[in-house]
C-alpha cells in the first residue's frame, strides 16, 4: 500500500495540470492582494481590503468556487485521463489489489485537492498581512482562532468534495464527462435542493447538513464551537463514505 501511495504521489507531482492549477491560484491571489494595495478608495476604487484579515475573509468566499472548479479540472486530468491512456488497465493487470489501488489514488487525489484549496486564502492572509497588517476582528473574536478554524474547515470540506468528485470520476472514467458532470452538480445542487424541498420538506433538513450548505458558512467568524465540530465531522464522514463508494464502484467496474 505504501508503494502505491508513493507511486500515486509521484504521478500527482508530475501532473502538469496540477502545477498549472496551483500556479494560476497563486498568481491570482498575488494579483488580488496587489489590486487592493494599489486601489485608491478616494478615486472611486471598489476594492476595500484594508487588512490581511479582510482579504482573508473575502478570499474564503472566492475559495468556495475555487474548490468546486479546481476539483473538477483536477479530477478530469488526474483521475479520468488515466483510463483513456491505459494506465489504470496496466496497473490492475500487474497484480495490484483493486481496492488498494483505487484507495491510494483517491487518497492522493484528496491530498492534492486539500493543497489546492489552501493556496488562494493562504497567499491572501500572508501577503495581505505583510502589506496591510494583520488587522483584527470585532466582537472580541480571536484572530488566530478564526484563521486556524477556517483552514481546518477548508481542508475538511475540500476532502469531502474531493471524495465526491473522485467517486464520480471513478464511475464515469471519461475526463470530459467528469468535468461536465461535476460542474453541473456543484453549481446547481443548491437550486435542486431548494426546488425539491418545496415538495419534500425533509430535503431542506438534508440540505442544512450537506456539504453544499456547510461550505457557504465555513468562513463565518461567529461560528460556534459546536457548529465547527459538526461541520468538520460531517465533512470527514462524507469523505470516508464516498471513498468507500469509489472503491465499491472500481471493484465491480470493467476496465477497458
From TrEMBL:
Tagged with keyword Transmembrane helix: yes
Keywords of this entry: Membrane, Transmembrane, Transmembrane helix
Signal sequence, start to end: none
Example of a GO cellular component annotation carried by this entry: plasma membrane
One GO molecular-function entry: ABC-type transporter activity
A Pfam family hit: ABC2_membrane_4
Entry keyword annotation includes Transmembrane helix: yes
Membrane spanning residue stretches: 18-38, 65-85, 106-127, 147-172, 179-200, 228-250
Domain of life: Bacteria
The protein, known as: ABC transporter permease subunit
Organism from which the protein derives: Paenibacillus sacheonensis
Source taxonomy: Bacteria, Bacillati, Bacillota, Bacilli, Bacillales
Amino acid at each position: 500500500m505504501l508503494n502505491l501511495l508513493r507511486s500515486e504521489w509521484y504521478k500527482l507531482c508530475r501532473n502538469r495540470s496540477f502545477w498549472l492549477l496551483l500556479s494560476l491560484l497563486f498568481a491570482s491571489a498575488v494579483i488580488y492582494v496587489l489590486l487592493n494595495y494599489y486601489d485608491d478608495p478616494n478615486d472611486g476604487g471598489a476594492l476595500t481590503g484594508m487588512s490581511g484579515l479582510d482579504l482573508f475573509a473575502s478570499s474564503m468566499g472566492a475559495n468556495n468556487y475555487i474548490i468546486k472548479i479546481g476539483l473538477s479540472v483536477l479530477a478530469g486530468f488526474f483521475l479520468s485521463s488515466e483510463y483513456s491512456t491505459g494506465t489504470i488497465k496496466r496497473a490492475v493487470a500487474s497484480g495490484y489489489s483493486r481496492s488498494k489501488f483505487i484507495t491510494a489514488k483517491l487518497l492522493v487525489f484528496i491530498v492534492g485537492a486539500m493543497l489546492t484549496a489552501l493556496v488562494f486564502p493562504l497567499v491572501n492572509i500572508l501577503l495581505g498581512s505583510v502589506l496591510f497588517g494583520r488587522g483584527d476582528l470585532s466582537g472580541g473574536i480571536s484572530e488566530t482562532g478564526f484563521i486556524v478554524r477556517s483552514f481546518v474547515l477548508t481542508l475538511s470540506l475540500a476532502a469531502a468534495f474531493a471524495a465526491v468528485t473522485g467517486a464520480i470520476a471513478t464511475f464515469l472514467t471519461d475526463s470530459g464527462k467528469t468535468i461536465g458532470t461535476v460542474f453541473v452538480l456543484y453549481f446547481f445542487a443548491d437550486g435542486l435542493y431548494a426546488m425539491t424541498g418545496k415538495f419534500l420538506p425533509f430535503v431542506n433538513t438534508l440540505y442544512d447538513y450537506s456539504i453544499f450548505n456547510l461550505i457557504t458558512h465555513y468562513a463565518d467568524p461567529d461560528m460556534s464551537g459546536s457548529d465547527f465540530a459538526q461541520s468538520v465531522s460531517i465533512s470527514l464522514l462524507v469523505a470516508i463514505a464516498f471513498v468507500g463508494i469509489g472503491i465499491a464502484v472500481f471493484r465491480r467496474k470493467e476496465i477497458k
